[in-house]
Structures are given as structure tokens and as C-alpha cells.
Design brief:
- By secondary structure, the protein is mostly helical.
- 47% of the residues lie in helices and 10% in strands.
- The protein is built from twelve helices and eight strands.
- Strands 3-4-5 form a three-stranded parallel sheet. A three-stranded mixed sheet has the order 6-7-8.
- Helix 3 links the parallel strand 4 (71-74) and strand 5 (93-96).
- Helix 6 (144-172) packs across helix 10 (213-229), helix 6 (144-172) packs across helix 12 (260-267) and helix 10 runs antiparallel to helix 11.
- It is globular, with a radius of gyration of 22 Å.
- The N and C termini lie far apart (56 Å).
């Protein structure tokens, strides 16, 4: 997601210096840094990394020599504990602004960001965040954005599993999955997620991966860890984590999170053949 987000910053008139060892060529008008250490020479840096270990390494090592007043925005999902740990460092100020949305939404700058920062910090970074996101919410002090993101993804994981279970029930009752999905999308359960994940559920082999199972599993584990610390019982999230674990065990970790449907199919007996309802007209008359 970092690539299109950086491109939007350029479009908004910002000078962008980027480092990503896994990307051979930077997008147009973005200066490619030789190492992550070069980011320390800027006034503001942003990370969009997959986990806490990578984020911690960047902030503690590469930004060790940051210029005075340097502010770093963590936009990856790492959980509030890592944010609080990094926020206690003396060489750099750290705030969190994880995002909700898919890669295609990042390309359209229609993702949402949840920001954990002081009021002045939020107002300072909001124009930068607005160049990449459609909505910017000040969730509270540092770490609050990450808490909000974990709560959102706990709902998302449960919704993903619920959609998959609904499709299984529909198939067991001899409904056409595509017809059922249209019904679901236009029903009281038709959340935006249901709409934009339609092809991921119905045609997974030809639909690009938006959010892999492995990352959603990581986020949900962080959410459950936070819940346990506060002595919360979250049975829906526990069940969703079990299905995500099953998906990873069957090799679906790199696949889109909609592949929980495949994992559930593996754990259930095959649906017996039925005569499916057809929406096509026949020659019968009444």
C-alpha cells in the first residue's frame, strides 16, 4: 500500500524520499534512498511496514540520528504496545496512523486513517494524511490509532468469516452463490466490505489479493492479546482466529482473506449435489 500512498503525496506537491529494498524502482517523481538511514535527515518520516519487528528496527536503528524535531508516523498495524515503546524513545517523536482499506482503495486515496497523537501533532500531520486518505480520525493520544485499528480488524475478521459461512449455507440449500451474494449485498447485512469483496469470494483465482490471510491473522492475534490484557472474553474473534489458523495451515496464508471460505470448505463435508435454482426462463407455462 505504501507505493500508491507515496504517489499521492507527490501529487499533492510534497517532496518524497522513499526506501523499500523489495521494490526495484520507485514511482515517478519519488527519490529513491540508498538506505533507510537517509530518512533520518527529513523533518517527517512515514512507515508502512507489515509488523512490529520491522517497524521497531526502523525507528530504533535507522532513525537513531534523526534531525531535531523529527516526527515519525507509523501507518502499519503493529498494536499499541509497540507504539508506546517507540513513543518513549528520546531521539524521535512517534505517532500512529494505521489505515483501513484495500490496495485498490489506497490507489484511489479512499482509505481511512485512525490517528493516535497529541492535538497539535494531529493538526500538523493531517494535511499530509489527507493527501493519502479520504478520512482522518483523531482517535486520541499516541497508541489510540492502533487500538482503533485492532478493534476495526476484529470486526472485519468476524465479518469475513460470517460472509463465508453465509455462502456455505446458501450452497447447501442449492442457491446459486452469485445470486445469493447479490441478495446479501443488498440486504441489511450489506456492509461496504460485502460489496467490494464480491469478486474475491466468487472468483478468487482471478481477483488480486487485497489483504492476505497472514496479515489479518497477525492483526487479530494482536487484538486478542489486547483483549486478554483487559480480561475481555471475545468468542467471535477466537473463532475467527481458529479459521485463519486453519487457512494458513492449508497454505492459504498469502491468499486474500476471503479465502477463509476455502478453509471452511476444507473443514466441512462436501455439499451434496442438488438441483440449483435457475434464474433463466424455461419453456414451461402456467
Amino acid at each position: 500500500m505504501g507505493g500508491p500512498m507515496a504517489a499521492h503525496l507527490v501529487e499533492a506537491g510534497h517532496t518524497v524520499l522513499a526506501y523499500d529494498p523489495e521494490v526495484a524502482q520507485a514511482p515517478a517523481h519519488i527519490v529513491r534512498a540508498g538506505s533507510a538511514d537517509a530518512l533520518a535527515m527529513t523533518a517527517l518520516s512515514i512507515s508502512m511496514l507489515p509488523d512490529g519487528d520491522a517497524t521497531r528496527a526502523l525507528v530504533t536503528d535507522s532513525l537513531r540520528g534523526a534531525v531535531p524535531g523529527h516526527l515519525h508516523i507509523v501507518m502499519g498495524t503493529v498494536g499499541p504496545d509497540v507504539i508506546h515503546e517507540l513513543g518513549a524513545l528520546s531521539h524521535v517523536a512517534v505517532i500512529d496512523a494505521p489505515v483501513s482499506g484495500s490496495v485498490s482503495m489506497a490507489e484511489a486515496a479512499s482509505i481511512t486513517t485512525m490517528v493516535g497523537a497529541g492535538v497539535e501533532q494531529f493538526e500538523y500531520v493531517r494535511p499530509v494524511l489527507a493527501a493519502m486518505t479520504a478520512a482522518q480520525f483523531h482517535a486520541g493520544p499516541v497508541g489510540s490509532g492502533s487500538t482503533a485499528k485492532l478493534a476495526v480488524n476484529a470486526v472485519l475478521a468476524g465479518l469475513s468469516q460470517a460472509v463465508a459461512e453465509g455462502i456455505l449455507l446458501a450452497e447447501a440449500g442449492a442457491l446459486d452463490p452469485a445470486v445469493f451474494y447479490d441478495i446479501l449485498r443488498n440486504s441489511a447485512a450489506g456492509a461496504p466490505y460485502v460489496g467490494y469483496k464480491q469478486q474475491a469470494y466468487l472468483a478468487p483465482d482471478t481477483t488480486p489479493v487485497a489483504a492476505p490471510v497472514s496479515l489479518i491473522r497477525k492483526d487479530l492475534a494482536l487484538a486478542l492479546e489486547l483483549g486478554r490484557r483487559h480480561r475481555l472474553t471475545l468468542p467471535g474473534s477466537e473463532a475467527a482466529l481458529t479459521v485463519l489458523d486453519d487457512a494458513i495451515a492449508t497454505g492459504l496464508g498469502p491468499q486474500d482473506m476471503a479465502q477463509v471460505l476455502t478453509a471452511l470448505r476444507h473443514s466441512n463435508p462436501p455439499v451434496l449435489p442438488h438441483t440449483r435454482f435457475s434464474t433463466q426462463q424455461t419453456g414451461a407455462r402456467s
